[in-house]
Design a protein that fits this description.
The chain is mainly β and 543 residues long. It has a seven-stranded mixed β-sheet, with no helix packed on it. The chain has a six-stranded mixed β-sheet with strand order 1-5-4-3-7-9. Strands 15, 17, 18, 21, 23 and 24 form a six-stranded mixed β-sheet that branches. It is 9% helix and 37% strand. It binds CU-O-CU linkage and copper (II) ion (2 copies).
């Protein structure tokens, strides 16, 4: 079962060769951080094997969590990855592609030196299948999963969930996509001539810090554990500021924020102006109607499915997927923002400045503020092609959200700037502060304190329907698409919802669907993974 180096080199290319050859000296090819300056690095695009290879399992699969050398596309550094073999090929962090209705059977082997367990984020499955931290297995041990895929088509993902170790393990590399196809997806893809790995491209966005010799560095300070660990470079599929060569047609991007803490305000930018794009899906698959946008927020754990139209461009033109300036609203110290807030915390002792000038201010370890402007990915148009498809006006329909049910207030706050709490509580493995009934729908009003920071709140096992946003900060309210102040990204089914300081987001949850047999113990937690590990998480018992 040795892994094929060739597979990895397909992705890491020059970077890996240099880094491996040079004993991982600081790679001089890491580009300067000025937007517009891009290295020649290609976006690692999922292929038929290797890192992020597309894997459609037939029969039981084995995923071995382990440390793998020479693999991080950006520097060739080692990272943690799920290794799998399938039909003679080796995969690292395979992008699992399954059909609705298919049985998914996999064995996790813990090849790490600490406990781990996989959580299938967004996928239906009883709590025994969902990777509750109480099921974490010791080094050398295995855990067997078997469940039918009952979700509709969509972009789901998987990552570790051992208590207090999730952030570190995900940061070090353990995370990938789980894509579900069904008939509706097939006809959509056919209508628009989209092919996964070619014109339908999953991209995981993650920020990292590197040590001076190019290794992934996860060393949060006490402050970082409270605020979330921010990297000083943002990688797309593991590569720093990569380029995707395109032709003049429509592309679909499935973007996952796989960062531990960083929130992105994303736009596609052409010649300094935002290029409109069409949001067709999010956490739980297609939205009922496509939404034309020119920017959106993506918090850790969330996914978006967008169509970008490059038809009017000419060869040589470039489009940047960029983070746009925003107020990250770190208001936990009580210092409500005056301008691009002063309550911003420092990262690893690096001063994070005010919102960046358009040129961005971060260089090397200078810190990269969440609200800075910086590019993530470049699309470089290379080829003129004919493409005459039109985006459908309607997408697969979903039932309207029910607005009644048991009302449950959920309050997010901090205790003396030391820990984050949900209804005043932090995680206790053995207690279930939220008890719900399968047959009774609920409406949760999730309120974030004013002296707080944004929290992306995730629920295992079920989806939310966002009903309303109240008291949203200006930068959010201005994006509202209806009288309930909901955002385009709130439509459809959500499993992670970002709640800004001072804001209340009301969601309805139907605990009867899916219907799991027997009592269940799921989790409700902040997907800022440092917050989760520090206890911003509660058990939810389903009777
Ligand atoms: Cu993706 Cu419990 O998390
Ligand atoms: Cu989850
Ligand atoms: Cu949080």
């Amino acid at each position: 079962m040795h892994h094929s180096r060739r597979d990895f080199l397909r992705f890491t290319g020059k970077a890996a060769i240099l880094a491996a050859g040079a004993g991982l000296g600081l790679p001089s090819f890491l580009p300067a951080s000025t937007p517009g300056v891009f290295s020649s690095a290609r976006l690692p695009v999922p292929g038929s094997s290797g890192l992020f290879g597309l894997l459609s399992p037939d029969g039981r699969l084995t995923l071995s969590a382990e440390k793998v050398p020479d693999v991080l596309p950006a520097t060739g550094a080692p990272m943690l990855a799920y290794r799998a073999s399938h039909n003679g090929s080796t995969f690292l962090n395979p992008i699992l592609v399954l059909r609705k209705g298919q049985d998914f059977e996999t064995t996790l082997i813990n090849g790490l030196d600490e406990p781990t367990i996989i959580h299938w984020h967004g996928l239906d499955g009883s709590w025994r299948q969902a990777g509750h931290p109480s099921y974490a297995v010791e080094p050398g041990n295995r855990y067997e999963y078997a469940f039918p895929v009952t979700n509709r088509a969509g972009t789901y993902w998987y990552h570790p969930h051992p208590h207090a170790l999730t952030a570190k393990q995900a940061y070090m590399g353990l995370a990938s996509f789980f894509i579900v196809h069904d008939d509706e997806e097939d006809s959509f893809a056919k209508e628009l001539d989209l092919r996964l790995g070619d014109t339908d491209i999953p991209v995981v966005i993650q920020d990292k810090r590197l040590t001076h010799d190019g290794q992934l560095d996860y060393s949060p300070s006490k402050d970082d554990l409270f605020m979330g660990y921010l990297g000083d470079m943002v990688l797309a599929n593991g590569q720093h500021r990569p380029t995707l060569k395109t032709s003049t047609r429509l592309y679909r991007f499935r973007l996952l924020n796989g960062s531990t803490a960083r929130i992105y305000n994303l736009s596609f930018v052409l010649n300094g102006t935002r290029l409109p794009f069409v949001l067709v899906g999010n956490d739980g698959g297609f939205l009922p109607t496509p939404q034309e946008l020119d920017g959106l927020y993506l918090a850790p754990g969330e996914r978006i499915d967008v169509l970008v139209d490059l038809r009017t461009l000419s060869p040589g033109q470039e489009v940047y997927l960029q983070n746009m300036t925003f107020d990250p609203m770190h208001n936990e110290s009580g210092a409500m923002h005056e301008g691009p807030h002063t309550g911003q915390h420092t990262q690893g002792g690096h001063e994070k400045g005010k919102a960046a000038p358009p040129s961005g201010h971060a260089g090397g370890h200078g810190g990269l503020g969440e609200g800075d402007t910086y590019p993530i990915l470049r699309l470089l148009v290379e080829q003129k092609v004919r493409y005459e498809r039109t985006i459908p006006r309607r997408l697969p329909d979903i039932p309207p959200a029910s607005t009644d049910g048991i009302e449950r207030p959920i309050a997010l706050a901090h205790k003396h700037m030391a820990s984050w709490t949900i209804n005043g509580l932090t995680f206790d493995m053995d207690s279930a502060p939220i008890v719900v009934h399968k047959r009774k729908p609920e409406v949760w009003h999730i309120s974030n304190a004013k002296d707080s920071m944004p929290h992306p709140m995730h629920l295992h096992g079920y989806f939310y329907r966002v009903l309303e946003r109240q008291n949203s900060p200006v930068q959010i309210r201005s994006l509202a698409v209806d009288s309930k102040a909901r955002l385009a990204t709130d439509m459809g089914y959500k499993d992670t919802v970002l709640v800004w300081p001072g804001e209340t987001v009301s969601v309805s949850i139907n605990f009867g669907t899916p219907s799991y047999s027997g009592e269940q113990l799921f989790l409700f937690h902040c997907h800022n993974l440092e917050h989760e590990d520090q206890g911003m998480m509660l058990n939810v018992k389903v009777l």
